[in-house]
Amino acid sequence: MRELLLRLRRSEDAAHPPHAWLGALGGIGLLALSIVFILGGFDLGVGSPRRLGTGAFPVLTGIALAALAIAIIVLDLRDTSDAERPDWISFFAIGAALAVFAVISERLGLVPAVFIATVVASLPDPSLKFTGKLLLGVIIALGCWGLFIGLLDLPFQAFKGV
């Protein structure tokens, strides 16, 4: 798998460099993803300023992501020079990680969903061994548990059925 990813990246680097406006496609993808976050957050319930609901974090994250995506689109459409080729493999891995989180969090809970999403997002990185990816998943999942459940007291279940 590692060799395949390296070969794909080398073949992309050998191709003609794309124009910077092609980077706007990544911004459009991020904008679409931000809309999914915002709509999903509203479905979960935003709550009030004194007691945030489960959907407050996805809505705020989606708004921030939308602002960044719009900035990316505008800047890339203004630029007429050649640019680096987008890393589509990593882009799709992040999208897959978010989809996995959305599907798993309802069924298994916050900690397993964050763990699996982190591992999926880190799969394209050839510099980190699989055991490192697992360790990274554990650290981030425990950090999210401590932050969102322990410190912020948000109504997440760490593990469903436990």
Tell me the number of structural domains. Answer: 2
Mean pLDDT across every amino acid position: 83
Largest sheet: none
Bulk shape: flat
Radius of gyration, Cα only, in angstroms?
A: 18 Å
Q: Compute the separation of the termini in Å.
A: 35 Å
Helix and strand content put the structural class at: mainly alpha
Residue fraction in strands: under 5%
Unreliable stretches, pLDDT < 50, 5 or more residues? none
- Count all strands and give the number: 0
Sketch the topology as an H/E string, one letter per element. HHHHHH
Helical content (DSSP H or I, runs of 4+): over 70%
User: Number of helical segments?
Assistant: 6
Would you mind describing this structure in some detail?
The protein is mostly helical. It has two domains: 1-14 and 87-162, no CATH class; 18-83. The protein is 70% helix and 0% strand. The protein is built from six helices and no strands. The protein has helices spanning 2-14, 23-44, 56-78, 88-108, 110-122, 130-151. The two termini are 35 Å apart. The mean pLDDT is 83.
Q: How does the SSE layout of this entry go?
A:
Blueprint: H1 2-14, H2 23-44, H3 56-78, H4 88-108, H5 110-122, H6 130-151
